[in-house]
Design a protein that fits this description.
Radius of gyration: 20 Å
Oligomer: single chain
Helix content: 25-40%
Order of helices and strands: EEEHEEEHEHEEEHHHHEHEH
Strand content: 15-25%
Bound molecules: zinc ion
Distance between the termini: 10 Å
Number of strands: 12
Number of helices: 9
Structural class: alpha/beta
Largest sheet: 5 strands, mixed
Strand order of the largest sheet: 3-2-1-4-7
Length: 298
């Protein structure tokens, strides 16, 4: 059976078709219609038709998007494509495509892709986390996305940063209304803010990593703080879920030093004499989201 995956983002909609073995048959990307719900739904269905025309095959359809369907109402919530929120996205797409579709959070799709045939293949429990503009997380157990009673399993980013130091309290304001959320420290903008607080200079996460590599002590300090915070944040996940593999995605997953330094720090915070959990980079990089959407039908 051909599996079609759709990654619905704020600026682009990407579609992919995978064959039975996970081989990519076709991939196509279009711009997301600007803040228009009906056009966005139509664009998704046209992308599916386009893929099926090329492959001359009908596929299952899975969709990954920021946000999640509310278990209470079936309506999408928490999406950064604001026009999609409060809409019966699943029902409307199913009506147009005349078939069942599966929809899941983009971080869940990322985790599923890497757990199915990526860096965490064959692991029983996988935590995938996309660290970029935000810090979305997803959990896969035995090859299936753990959805949860409230459809928020894996959403660690709006927990407080654990074992806070005095100067980390109460922590930056978060858009969710709380202070000191993990996301406010560990997202790319969170890293930039930390650097700004010390230097009064505005630098992106990529620039700070580059400065540290070229010998800036202030940037190095900033990254060491970041690594300590990431280790603390992930220790909480390990203490609760005990995954075999944690896969990083998003922009920060390109920072190679994290894979060495963070596991050295997290030992102190994990309630175990041995720590077998591996921290790994993604095999499919930016393609993980769309591949995982396809694997929702598995
Ligand atoms: Zn928050």
């Amino acid at each position: 059976m051909m599996r079609i995956g759709i990654d619905l983002g704020g600026t682009k909609i990407e579609g992919i078709a995978l064959d039975e073995s996970g081989k990519q048959l076709v991939r196509h990307r279009i711009a997301t219609p600007v803040e228009d719900y009906a056009s966005t739904i139509l664009a998704i269905t046209e992308l599916v038709s386009y893929i099926e025309n090329i492959t001359q095959c009908t596929g299952s359809v899975g969709i990954g998007t920021p946000g999640a369907l509310s278990p209470a109402t079936g309506l999408l919530r928490n999406s950064n494509s604001v026009c999609m929120n409060g809409k019966p996205v699943k029902a409307d797409i199913e009506k147009l495509l005349k078939r069942d579709v599966r929809i899941s959070n983009d971080a869940n799709c990322f985790a599923l892709s890497e757990a199915t045939d990526g860096s965490a293949k064959d692991a029983e429990v996988v935590f995938g986390v996309i660290i970029g503009t935000g810090t979305g997380g997803g959990v896969v157990v035995n090859g299936k996305v753990l959805k949860g009673a409230n459809a928020i399993a894996g959403e660690w980013g709006h927990n407080p940063l654990p074992w806070p130091k005095q100067n980390e309290l109460p922590g930056p304001n978060c858009y969710c209304g709380k202070q000191g959320c993990i996301e406010t420290f560990l997202s790319g903008p969170g890293l930039s803010d930390d650097f700004y607080n010390v230097t009064n200079e505005t630098k992106t996460a990529v620039e700070i990593v580059g400065l540290a590599a070229s010998g800036s002590l202030l940037a190095e300090d900033c990254l060491q703080r970041y690594e300590h915070r990431l280790a603390r944040g992930l220790s909480n996940v390990i203490n609760l879920l005990d995954p075999e593999v944690i896969v990083l995605g998003g922009g920060m997953s390109n920072v190679q030093r994290l894979y060495k330094n963070v596991p050295e720090i997290w030992r102190e915070f994990i309630f175990s004499d041995v720590v077998n959990t591996k921290l790994v980079s993604p095999m499919y990089g930016d393609s993980s989201g769309v591949r995982g959407a396809a694997w929702l039908n598995n």
